[in-house]
């Protein structure tokens, strides 16, 4: 059964111009097919052409279980330009995460080397001295019932960086089946790509509304 109709898919659009398409990707949906099969965003890309000859394509990664801002380029040239922005560190990302426990400090930087010890299509990342350094800024925004809402800003983009960094400081992300011990049929993973800023010649900033499970938590939490 298809998860979206054309109308409901268009409701997820955050921005559209001749070059860019930005959508609020739902969680539990991979961008492209993987070893596990199942429905992917790629199945719906023909519905997002809006007159273009070819499908748009994502220019950065977003885990299947992560919701929020996803940027797609509507032509090969635009995708190349956007990829260069990412490669030059001219893209700023802000995530929200609901985590188990409260961090020892209300803000700071997590700085740990990360190494993928999994296999193709099935990443499994661990903190290893032989890995590549990952740096993540964090700030606690509020808490409720031994859980916290964190703002996370990755300074670079290692695979599963935010998920592993949160788990490493004793605050695994709620609903994370790999690094948080959650059951795969349990709650949605509470990781949301809240904002993305393209710092090119003409800066663009995009914000994705919080999904329902975040709204419910925020309504109960004590803000800091």
**Number of beta strands:** 12
Give the CA-based shape: globular
Question: What's the gyration radius in Å?
Answer: 17 Å
Helix and strand composition category: alpha+beta
Q: Please state roughly what percent of the residues sit in beta strands, choosing from under 5%, 5-15%, 15-25%, 25-35%, 35-45% or over 45%.
A: 25-35%
Helix content: 10-25%
The pLDDT mean sits at: 93
Helical region count?
4
Low-confidence stretches: none
SSE ordering: HEEEEHEEEEEHEEHE
Structural summary, described in words:
This protein is of the alpha+beta class and 224 residues long. The chain is 15% helix and 34% strand. It has four helices and twelve strands. It has helices at 6-10, 76-87, 161-168, 212-220; strands at residues 13-16, 20-25, 57-58, 67-73, 91-100, 107-116, 125-127, 132-144, 147-154, 191-198, 204-207, 222-223. Strands 1, 2, 3, 4, 5, 6, 7, 8, 9, 10, 11 and 12 form a twelve-stranded mixed β-sheet that branches. Strand 3 (57-58) and strand 4 form a beta hairpin. The radius of gyration is 17 Å and the shape is globular.
Using brief descriptors, characterize the structure shown.
224 residues; alpha+beta; twelve-stranded mixed sheet; globular
Overview in brief:
The protein has helices spanning 6-10, 76-87, 161-168, 212-220; strands at residues 13-16, 20-25, 57-58, 67-73, 91-100, 107-116, 125-127, 132-144, 147-154, 191-198, 204-207, 222-223.
Task: Compile the SSE list and pairings.
Layout: H1 6-10, E1 13-16, E2 20-25, E3 57-58, E4 67-73, H2 76-87, E5 91-100, E6 107-116, E7 125-127, E8 132-144, E9 147-154, H3 161-168, E10 191-198, E11 204-207, H4 212-220, E12 222-223
Parallel strand pairs: 4-10
Antiparallel strand pairs: 1-2, 2-4, 3-4, 5-9, 5-10, 6-7, 6-8, 8-9, 8-12, 10-11
């Amino acid at each position: 059964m298809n998860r979206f109709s054309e109308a409901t898919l268009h409701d997820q659009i955050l921005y559209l111009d001749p070059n860019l398409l930005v959508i609020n990707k739902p969680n539990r949906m991979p961008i492209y097919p993987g070893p596990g099969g199942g429905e992917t965003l790629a199945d719906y890309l023909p519905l997002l052409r809006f007159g273009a000859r070819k499908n748009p394509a994502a220019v950065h990664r977003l885990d299947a279980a992560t919701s929020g801002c996803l940027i797609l380029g509507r032509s090969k040239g635009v995708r190349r330009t956007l990829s260069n922005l990412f490669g030059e560190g001219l893209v700023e990302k802000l995530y929200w995460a609901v985590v188990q426990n409260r961090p020892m400090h209300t803000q700071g930087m997590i700085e740990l080397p990360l190494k993928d010890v999994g296999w193709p299509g099935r990443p499994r990342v661990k903190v290893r001295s032989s890995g590549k350094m990952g740096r993540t800024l964090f700030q606690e925004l509020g808490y409720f019932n031994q859980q916290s809402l964190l703002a996370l800003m990755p300074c670079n983009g290692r695979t599963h960086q935010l998920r592993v960094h949160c788990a490493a400081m004793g605050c695994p992300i709620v609903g994370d089946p790999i690094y948080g011990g959650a059951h795969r049929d349990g709650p949605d993973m509470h990781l949301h790509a809240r904002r993305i800023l393209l710092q090119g010649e003409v800066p663009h900033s995009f914000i994705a509304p919080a999904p329902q499970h975040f709204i419910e938590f925020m309504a109960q939490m004590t803000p800091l």
